[in-house]
Amino acid sequence: MTDGDPGTDVFGGRTEQWRAWQDEPWGRLRYSLVATTTARAVAHLPGPLRIADIGGGDGADGLPLAGAGHSVTVVDVSPPLLRAAADRFAEAGLADRLRTVHADLDDLHGGLEEAGAFDVVLCLDVVHYRADVASTVATLVGLVRPGGVVSVMAPNPAMDVLSAAVRRTDPAAALAVLDALTVHGVTFDHPMRRVEAATVEAALAEAGCTVQHRFGVRCVMDLVADDEVKHDPEFYRRLEELETALCERDPYRLTARFWQVTATRG
After folding, report:
1. Residue 105: its pLDDT value, please?
2. Can you list the alpha helix ranges (DSSP code H) found in 92-230?
3. Which helix (H) or strand (E) holds 67?
4. Among 97, 122, 137, 143, whose CB has the most other CB atoms within 10 angstroms?
5. Average pLDDT of span 73-93
6. Domains of the chain
7. Distance CA 90, CA 131 (A)
8. Sign of dihedral through CA atoms 48, 50, 56, 58?
9. How far apart are CA 103 and CA 194, in angstroms?
């Protein structure tokens, strides 16, 4: 594990908090949108696909892909989250499409026998916990076959500023975070590095990949201060429809809560 990265106890010790966050409207919207963007990014690949979800936790991102007929390997450092992934897939009747691997990213420098053979490698909500983004990206690219897809996602530093100023009406907090190197993540109670999409794009290019898609996930939800209305099914439906329309459009994607970049390995 890279110096300064969170350990197993950080993630596995807060499994209940993570599941509660997933069940909230903002969590559900995040997963719904990522299922849509990822499906777009891999639509050109002939299936069924072999997919590695690095730092995939409880398997929430892999489940829709398994449901579409693909095989999913979830790699994570947290045994409790991997057990939750196995339970999630079993409940959906998809246990035969899941493999779990207990490993840290640093173990994957040749640590998986399938290195270079996956069709798709996902690394969602992980790189902001890593000290060396370029090395992390190089590891991910090494797991995917030529012509395969790598997808990376992380919190967008721009929304740190906008949400403080607009949602919380706190200009001082927005100014304070503007050039900050880290912010505090509430769900896992741990600092998160503020990683720009351009940093990952440069690392992908250095590793021999060509960017195909640039998405923004939750372009507007995090600017709505009224959390109660987000629980209203009709409002949520309309918001999800809007967010789906915005996720690949400039300028809206540029300030979304999360950026997501997908690239093809040369």
Report:
1. 81
2. 133-142, 157-162, 171-177, 197-206
3. helix 62-67
4. 122
5. 95
6. 8-265 (3.40.50.150)
7. 34
8. positive
9. 24
Helix (H, G, I), strand (E, B) or coil at 20: helix
CA dist 150 and 166 (Å) reads 33
**What pLDDT shows up at residue 48?**
96
246 burial (CB, 10 Å; 0-12 / 13-18 / 19+) is: buried
Residue 69, number of CB atoms within 10 A of its CB: 11
Model pTM greater than 0.90?
Answer: yes
Weakest mean pLDDT among 23-37, 61-75, 188-202: 188-202
For residues 127 and 261, give the distance between their C-alpha atoms in angstroms, rounded to a whole number: 12
Taking only the tens place, the pLDDT of each residue in 169-180 is: 999 999 999 999
Q: Which residues contact 234 (CB under 8 A, 6 or more apart)?
A: none
pLDDT at 73 over 80: yes
Which of 62, 67, 72, 143 has its CA nearest to residue 105? 143
How far is the C-alpha of 226 from the C-alpha of 222, rounded, in Å? Answer: 10
Phi first, then psi, for residue 67 (nearest 5°) are -65, -25
- Take residue 213 and report the two structure tokens written for it: 């898609």
CA dist 110 and 116 (Å) reads 9
pLDDT digits (tens, 9 = 90+) for 95-113: 999 999 998 887 765 455 5
More confident position, 164 or 113: 164
Contact 157, 196 (CB under 8 A): yes
Task: Reduce the secondary structure of 196-252 to three states and give it as a string.
Answer: CHHHHHHHHHHCCEEEEEEEEECCCHHHCCCCCHHHCHHHHHHHHHHHHHHCCCCCH
Q: CA triplet 154, 161, 228: central angle to 5 degrees? A: 85
